[in-house]
Amino acid sequence: MAIQKLDVEFATEDGTLLRGRTYCPTESGSFPGIVMAHGFGGVQHLIEHYAELFAEAGFSVLLYDHRGFGISDGTPRQEVDPYQQMSDWRDAMTFALQQDKFDEAAGLGVWGSSFAGGLAIVLAAIDPRVRVVVAQIPNVSGHRNGTKLFTTAQISEIRDRSLDDRVNRIAGGAPDVVPLFTTEPDRLSALPVPTNEAFMEYIAALEANAAWPNFVTLRSVEHLLEFEPAGWIPYVSPKPLLMIIGENDDCTFPDVQREVFAEAGEPKKLVSHPGGHFDTYDKYFAVTGPPARDWFLEHLV
């Protein structure tokens, strides 16, 4: 199905402008909608091939940059705040359903990857407009995932620096920041993952976007350790949940994901690929994209 892409911007409740793009069938009429968001520290262009796939299947899709990231407004820049991001995502849903190409009566699907996969789970549990959810390589438990991602010493450094950061912010100082990724083994980063080929390709794709700097606020890492979508997963049912995981994911760990998935009610489905976290987007797109498309076709149309 032929699709059309349109650059859009919309205001959140506090007036912050978020920017993205709609991907819609060129045929006349309105279509079931999907609202998508990128993961921790990412930007929208890294997942636009998913949006195109869904639109070609007959959905109207809204994909945008979180506040403080990419081409969206918002300060502090590069701050991942799950609670703010969920509020903004709900504003994005409101905007989408006001567009002629989105069928309000059909409700919405949500698709999130990595950290946004956890956000999508919570949104499905709390927002009645969400009819179906796809959580790809999701961070489902900040505590369980964080204790595998970071060493004890790194967690202590995060906690200590966060206390100082709070004092500094109250005094009017700039937020403390850390690299999102680093190849320096002794330097704290937000995502201390091995630098394999897929990781390096992901970084190259990020660096190709002038709107992406390699840092996040330290508070983002605090949120990464604290956010617990697992507590909400029993409340997603009876909305259909598809979870997609990587069997060798060393960023959002499959054993944690399986534990949390087991706590979800029906209907649900688990799909896996043999690769790691950053293999998901391109190398295993044929394993991750079509199942998500088919899940939406089964449960949203």
Automatic annotation (TrEMBL):
<protein>
    <submittedName>
        <fullName>Peptidase S15</fullName>
    </submittedName>
</protein>
<dbReference type="InterPro" id="IPR051411">
    <property type="entry name" value="Polyketide_trans_af380"/>
</dbReference>
<dbReference type="Pfam" id="PF02129">
    <property type="entry name" value="Peptidase_S15"/>
</dbReference>
<dbReference type="InterPro" id="IPR029058">
    <property type="entry name" value="AB_hydrolase_fold"/>
</dbReference>
<feature type="domain" description="Xaa-Pro dipeptidyl-peptidase-like">
    <location>
        <begin position="14"/>
        <end position="278"/>
    </location>
</feature>
<dbReference type="GO" id="GO:0016787">
    <property type="term" value="F:hydrolase activity"/>
</dbReference>
<dbReference type="InterPro" id="IPR000383">
    <property type="entry name" value="Xaa-Pro-like_dom"/>
</dbReference>
